[in-house]
Each structure stands twice: as C-alpha cells, then as structure tokens.
Amino acid sequence: EAGVTQFPSHSVIEKGQTVTLRCDPISGHDNLYWYRRVMGKEIKFLLHFVKESKQDESGMPNNRFLAERTGGTYSTLKVQPAELEDSGVYFCASSPILGAPGDTQYFGPGTRLTVL
Amino acid sequence: AQSVAQPEDQVNVAEGNPLTVKCTYSVSGNPYLFWYVQYPNRGLQFLLKYITGDNLVKGSYGFEAEFNKSQTSFHLKKPSALVSDSALYFCAVRDGTNAGKSTFGDGTTLTVKP
C-alpha cells in the first residue's frame, strides 16, 4: 500500500510569491490533515478535511493560506503571498475512520518551505 | 484545550542501555496518546498509541510506552537501545471532543552512542 505522498519535497521562494503544496493521501482515507512545524518547535495542526469538506480549520494562521480538496482525493495548500514566518515543514496526514479519536494518522514526508 | 510537554530536548544513551523519552499531557476528556518517530530526511512514522485498556502499550521496533493517568504521563521506553534508534521523537495527544486535531510536543532528539 502506498503511503501519503507530498510534493514538492523542498520549495524556496521569495517573500510575496505564491506557493502551492500538494498532498496525496493513502487511497481510501476520507480524513486528510495539514500540520506544520516552524523553527524546530512543535508540530501544529492547521486543518482537517473529511472527504472534500473542511471539518476543522481552526489552526489556519490567516487568510493567506487556502486549502482545498476537490473531489475528496488529493489536497492542495496555497500560500499567497508568502511571508518569512511561513518557512517551515508542512506535513500532510491521512486516516481512514470518520470520527474516531483513536484512529492513527499516517504522515507524509513533509514539504520544507523556505521563504527568503 | 489540550497540550503536550516533552521536557527534554535531547536524550543521550549508550547502545544496549535502556532508554526513556518523557511525555506529559493535558486534556479535558479521555486522552488518546501517540508516539511518532522522525528519522533524518524522512516523514513521521507511527510507533504506538494508547486508546484504552492495558496501561503498557507495545509498538514497533521494540518500543513500549506506559500510560499513567495519575501523573498524566505517557513515557516512551525501550529495554535496550540501538544506534539506529537515533532520531527525533514526538508525543501527541487527542481528546474525544475533537477526533481529528492532534496536539504535539516539541520533540525530543534521541542519540544512541556505540
């Protein structure tokens, strides 16, 4: 079974530019999550999709971040315009079972974003 | 609100010795606790979890963790460390009121020396 994949693995952009990150969850997983780790600190929750619907977007830092999951398959996270403090590692995770807090979330390798 | 504390940024042990990576948590409801490991240039890998039942949970690569409700702790342990266990370890918690959102600690870097 293929795991969660993320693209690109690294991205270096200038402040003010736009970047789009992509996540492909494990096939059949309805739940998709975005997290990020900034400056070597804790991994912070950004948002949770159930199929194509946003279940919880309480962690999205501001309106420069836009996440989509059209068709309930892969997801994109767009940052526009990027700021220096957006630098970090963006992780995507997926899980199969709806509404189960004990459900394991499986993580992708992450996208390392550097904003100069 | 939920939170996780990993009090040690760095843990150093000699190969063959037992290791412990500490984690304490705070949740308003029943805790669902997880340990993940991140090897260099790799993503997070699931190690083990506590949902309910036996307080001692066994996971991948010989790791285990003990849930202690009175001390609100979920320390990760291994009886005999390997050099290949050197990695970054994250503890995470969820409660029953929000099935999706995991709260992570800052991570602990484990170094096992030959």
Structural description of this entry:
The complex is a heterodimer of chains A (116) and B (114). The termini of chain A are far apart. Helix content of chain A is 0%, strand content 48%. In chain A, strands 2, 4, 5, 6, 9, 10 and 11 form a seven-stranded mixed beta sheet that branches. Chain A has strands spanning 5-7, 10-13, 19-24, 31-37, 43-50, 53-56, 65-68, 75-79, 88-95, 106-107, 111-115. With 116 residues, chain A is mainly β. Chain A is built from no helices and eleven strands. With 114 residues, chain B is mainly β. Chain B is built from no helices and twelve strands. Chain B has strands spanning 3-5, 10-14, 19-21, 24-26, 31-38, 44-50, 56-58, 64-68, 73-78, 87-95, 103-104, 108-113. In chain B, strands 2, 5, 6, 10, 11 and 12 form a six-stranded mixed beta sheet that branches. In chain B, strand 5 (31-38) and strand 6 (44-50) form a beta hairpin. Chain B is globular, with a radius of gyration of 14 Å.
Q: What topology emerges from the helices and strands here?
A:
The complex is a heterodimer of chains A (116) and B (114).
Chain A: E1 5-7, E2 10-13, E3 19-24, E4 31-37, E5 43-50, E6 53-56, E7 65-68, E8 75-79, E9 88-95, E10 106-107, E11 111-115
Parallel strand pairs in A: 2-11
Antiparallel strand pairs in A: 1-3, 3-8, 4-5, 4-9, 5-6, 7-8, 9-10, 9-11
Chain B: E1 3-5, E2 10-14, E3 19-21, E4 24-26, E5 31-38, E6 44-50, E7 56-58, E8 64-68, E9 73-78, E10 87-95, E11 103-104, E12 108-113
Parallel strand pairs in B: 2-12
Antiparallel strand pairs in B: 1-4, 3-9, 5-6, 5-10, 7-8, 8-9, 10-11, 10-12
What is the total tally of β strands of chain A?
11
Helix content of chain A: under 10%
Helix content of chain B: under 10%
Annotation field: number of helices of chain B: 0
- How many DSSP helices of chain A? 0
General form of chain A: globular
Please give a quick description of this structure.
The complex is a heterodimer of chains A (116) and B (114). Chain A is built from no helices and eleven strands.
